[in-house]
């Protein structure tokens, strides 16, 4: 009986120690969700193509580089324009993410404004794990998105 109480107390201590309030994750060693959000934040908010390329596979980084600037990549490659945008992981579905050992698919909702109009877009970000880091390997548009019709 004493062993059960000790185990419960230890489990509670471990759970509480994980709640230190520091929710910021390093995008290089963080979760696929944090990398996907940071990738689009680099393009649309920071307007930093080099930062976005650092979060992508070598092949995808070359594709991004071919657009020259973050604005061009966002406008042409992703077919989205924003004056301001908020990027969130789509938490409405049953599967927050589809993750296997070395790859993950994360669905993001981009909610912002362009030319005074509200714009909402959904993109699925495919990531792969290379040398312990999650990297963006592809971005897919939602087939029901208004921007691709």
Tell me briefly what this model is:
It is built from five helices and five strands, in the order αααααβββββ. The protein has helices at residues 2-17, 32-44, 49-54, 58-65, 70-77, and strands spanning 84-89, 97-99, 103-114, 117-130, 133-141.
Architecture overview:
This protein is of the alpha+beta class. It contains 5 helices and 5 strands, in the order H-H-H-H-H-E-E-E-E-E. The chain has helices at 2-17, 32-44, 49-54, 58-65, 70-77; strands at residues 84-89, 97-99, 103-114, 117-130, 133-141. The protein is globular and about 60 Å long. It starts with a helix and ends in an 8-residue tail after the last strand. Mean pLDDT is 81; it is low at 5-29.
How is the secondary structure organized here?
Blueprint: H1 2-17, H2 32-44, H3 49-54, H4 58-65, H5 70-77, E1 84-89, E2 97-99, E3 103-114, E4 117-130, E5 133-141
Antiparallel strand pairs: 1-3, 2-3, 3-4, 4-5
């Amino acid at each position: 009986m004493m062993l059960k109480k000790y185990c419960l107390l230890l489990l509670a201590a471990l759970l509480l120690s994980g709640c230190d309030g520091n929710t910021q994750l390093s995008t290089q060693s963080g979760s696929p969700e944090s990398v996907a959000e940071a990738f689009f934040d680099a393009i649309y908010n920071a307007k930093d193509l080099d930062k976005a390329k650092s979060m992508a596979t070598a092949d995808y980084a070359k594709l991004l580089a071919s657009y020259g600037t973050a604005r061009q990549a966002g406008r042409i490659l992703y077919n989205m324009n924003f004056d301001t945008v908020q990027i969130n992981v789509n938490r409405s579905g049953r599967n927050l993410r589809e993750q296997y050992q070395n790859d993950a698919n994360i669905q993001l909702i981009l909610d912002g404004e362009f030319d005074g109009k509200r714009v909402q877009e959904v993109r699925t970000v495919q990531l792969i794990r290379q040398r312990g880091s999650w990297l963006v390997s592809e971005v897919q548009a939602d087939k029901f998105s208004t921007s691709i019709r």
